[in-house]
């Protein structure tokens, strides 16, 4: 990406590090693609593709970022607004299809009350957490959410056992989005002006994200190979001798 475009998009403080900024921007793009794929897959399968608690935390984080928090980099703020708009589509898939997906009868009967309470709770907790941690930019908050989402994706897979192309692409987008963003961010973070948070916790969350996402991609890849082998075996068994 040309450095003069990054200077225009990000402002002067970090313009001497265009390739690090580029890694963060490309990682952000993969997150946006992930959201688009999650919306498409949700409408196709009449379900939601991101775990409910993670959706609530994601959406409320982006709401805070879009209307309250000030990002240290202009393009990052634009990305927050883009995420919020796309995440609204994912929230719609939850409200449209989520009720019938619930295996617990009590949650299914009170699904919309549970959703409203989850979103309100996520918003309040994140505002309190960022204040308690002096996390003015919401970085710790964001990586905590992402780690939580990565863990919940495993539970979602084992509950549904779905390994189609869209789910596999979503897993890759999360890995590349977190991986590229973290690679650039760990070097850029000390250069940012403003309050700093504990770097050990921040970097540990970055590493946990990448490891969990890589494991999830490997899990889906293994499941896809197993499905292909089973399909081939079934085809051979069904074919006439």
The count of strands amounts to 0
Strand coverage percent: under 5%
Tell me the Rg in angstroms.
20 Å
Proportion of residues in helical segments: over 70%
The helix/strand order is: HHHHHHHHH
Number of helices: 9
Dominant shape: globular
Oligomeric form of this entry? single chain
pLDDT average, as an integer? 84
User: Span from first to last CA?
Assistant: 58 Å
Runs with pLDDT <50, length 5+? 1-12
Based on secondary structure, the structural category is mainly alpha
**Major beta-sheet overview:** none
How would you characterize the overall build of this protein?
It is a single chain. The protein has 241 residues and is an all-alpha fold. The protein is built from nine helices and no strands. Helix 2 (18-45) runs antiparallel to helix 8 (165-188), helix 7 packs parallel to helix 9 and helix 8 (165-188) packs antiparallel against helix 9. The protein is globular and about 70 Å long.
Helix and strand topology:
Layout: H1 3-10, H2 18-45, H3 52-67, H4 74-97, H5 105-109, H6 111-132, H7 139-160, H8 165-188, H9 199-238
Helix pairs in contact: 1-2, 2-4, 2-8, 3-4, 3-6, 3-7, 7-9, 8-9
Summarize the structure.
By secondary structure, the chain is mainly α. Helices cover 78% and strands 0% of the residues. The termini are far apart.
List keywords for this structure.
globular, disordered N terminus, 9 helices, mainly alpha, 241 residues
